[in-house]
Design goal:
It is a single chain. The chain has 17 helices and 16 strands. Strands 7-8-11-12-13-14-15-16 form an 8-stranded parallel beta barrel, surrounded by 7 helices. A 6-stranded mixed sheet has the order 1-6-4-5-3-2, covered by helices on one side. Strands 9-10 form a two-stranded antiparallel sheet. The longest helix is centred in the N-terminal third of the chain and has 18 residues. Helix 3 runs parallel beside helix 4, helix 5 packs parallel to helix 7 and helix 9 runs parallel beside helix 10. Strand 4 and strand 5 form a beta hairpin. Helices cover about 35% and strands about 15% of the residues. It has about 525 residues and is α/β, with parallel strands linked by helices. Bound molecules: acetamide (ACM). Acetamide (ACM) binds next to loops.
């Protein structure tokens, strides 16, 4: 009976201790932090509203993080921030615990229902000289705020203010929310396989720029990349090849779960894609009964497209697809399942339509929403399915007419595998050369007359015909993927290449610290040249 009041009593004093920081008043109270202007710090994507108050918050060994503990995921966001602060500064910042009685400069991560926070990813970030407060109505929003805060921590500490290092964070207020609900990238792990570690590193960098999805292209003519327990030859045979005769590879279901869990920690979803009825040579080589092109099957390690198809009139094919979708759906918490559907050049039109309509039902049976490349708009698909606009405006408009949502990935603007220019070491240019400024200077919400209300988001696909290592992946993805992050997050009125390119140049500190092999485009005023 008496325990409760005593606990409360103690907590009261802990709280007072945190606020007043008795006994340690001398430290920061007497610090005079250099004047810094929040508006001059390079943040990507640029937040919706930034108000600077021109003093500083001292991040140092006396700082601590406290989070709402009753709402799901907030304590984990606090732990993530602490881990990243440690990585950048070597400071060991406690989360939700009072480890020393001289805490000063608390970072609070709060669940809040304020009306300004309308969407699940919106947040407010208040930085005062004595505290930082993050408010969001979801852990995802708090996580996005943490990415902003990470970008505000200076690269180097100030060693002259005190006899311990201090990272001075400029004070002010940021109110922010994404312009598009879905902001994704895609990685083709079928043409060339990328390891779990490679995918995790890609996720690290994408999450820093507030991406919320990574689409994995898990099957193609050249390889099948995910274990399906009921059809083991897919990985015994279909995973052993890749472009150029290299050794291939695949994710076990445990590997896939590990990627999903890692993405979840970064408030990103993984969208799995099994590409069909075309792009299926590896599946049909594994199980010839699936094949519908009437040709003798052999493993394929080239880069041509459009020669393979499933037999769209065979029940076994749909039993196979049901097993594949079921097994993947069971380990894939995202609400979406991507069925590919592109470039089925040897599937008759009526067979293609029959196929897409049947597969949509299978995807729905497993409680997922179907996504397909824009060709699926030619079938009679449901308005709940989603079209990914990569090539044909006409197909995208067919989808709009059906009331479908669209993911914008026009190859001419958003394909990460297009070369920067004719001198690019990797990549293709069948759609266009895409220099860093071209990648930035367009608007996914106003492209080829697709109505804004239909646009779910923006995705930047990275096909892997010409890349087989993480370093090559990074050369094509960065810095363009950073620009796509801003196109997906920041409203058009606030975007401007001339100011963006300076903020982009400042990313080199982060990219170098992360050992990212970004392309040093001459269009960007990098600091080190
Ligand atoms: C695609 O680039 N074939 C979707």
């Amino acid at each position: 009976m008496i325990k409760l009041p005593i606990t409360r009593f103690l907590l009261f004093f802990v709280a007072i201790g945190i606020l007043v920081s008795c006994g340690e008043e001398k430290k920061k109270r007497q610090l005079s932090l250099p004047k810094t202007d929040l508006k001059t710090v390079s943040i990507i994507p640029l937040p919706q509203k930034v108000i600077a108050t021109e003093t500083g918050f001292a991040l140092d060994k006396f700082s601590a993080i406290f989070t709402t503990e009753t709402a799901n995921g907030f304590a984990e966001v606090g732990a993530f921030l602490s881990e990243k602060i440690q990585g950048k500064t070597n400071l060991d910042i406690a989360v939700n615990s009072v480890q020393n009685d001289s805490l000063e400069g608390i970072i609070y991560i709060n669940r809040s229902d304020s009306l300004e926070l309308e969407t699940p990813e919106s947040y407010q970030l208040y930085i005062r000289s004595d505290s930082i407060i993050i408010n969001s109505n979801s852990a995802a929003g708090a996580f996005r705020a943490v990415q902003t805060l990470r970008q505000l921590i200076p690269e180097t500490a100030n060693d002259t203010l005190a006899d311990y290092p201090i990272w001075a964070i400029p004070t002010g207020k940021i109110v922010d929310a994404p312009s598009l609900a879905y902001r994704g990238a895609m990685l083709d792990v079928a043409r060339h396989f990328f390891s779990v570690a490679d995918v995790k590193k890609f996720i690290d960098v994408l999450a820093y720029y507030k991406y919320n999805g990574l689409h994995l292209h898990l099957s193609d003519d050249q390889g099948w990349r995910i274990e399906i327990k009921s059809w083991p030859k897919l990985t015994e045979i279909g995973a052993s090849t890749e472009v150029g005769g290299e050794s291939g590879g695949f994710y076990t279901q445990e590997d896939f779960k590990e990627i999903v869990a890692y993405a979840k920690k970064h408030h990103m979803m993984i969208i799995p894609e099994i590409d069909m009825p075309g792009h299926t040579n590896a599946a049909s080589v594994s199980y010839p009964i699936l094949n519908g092109n009437g040709k003798t099957l052999k493993p394929y390690e080239g880069t041509r497209v459009g020669f393979s198809t499933f037999d769209t009139r065979k029940d076994t094919v749909y039993a196979f697809i049901d097993d594949v979708v079921r097994e993947i759906a069971e380990i894939s918490p995202s609400p979406y399942f991507h069925i590919g559907g592109d470039e089925s050049h040897v599937t008759k039109k009526k067979d293609y339509i029959h196929f897409v309509e049947k597969v949509e039902k299978i995807v729905q049976k497993h409680e997922k929403r179907m996504i397909g490349w824009d060709e699926i708009g030619t079938a009679d698909v449901d308005s709940s399915s989603i079209s990914q606009f990569w090539s044909s405006t006409e197909n995208a408009k067919l989808a709009v007419a059906k009331g479908m949502q669209i993911i914008m990935s026009p190859a001419k603007k958003a394909y990460l595998d297009m070369q920067y220019d004719s001198l690019s070491k990797h990549g293709l240019h069948w759609a266009a050369f895409i220099p860093v400024d071209t990648a930035y200077n367009w608007s996914p919400k106003a492209y080829e007359g697709i109505p804004e209300k239909n646009i779910l988001g923006l995705e930047a696909p990275l096909w892997s015909e010409t890349i087989s290592t993480i370093s090559e992946l990074e050369y094509l993805a960065f810095p363009r993927a950073i620009g796509y992050a801003e196109l997906g997050w920041t409203p058009k009125e606030l975007r401007n290449w001339d100011t963006y390119k300076k903020r982009l140049a400042d990313q080199e500190y982060y990219l170098k610290r992360m050992n990212v092999n970004y392309y040093e485009s001459a269009l960007v005023p990098w600091k080190d040249e």
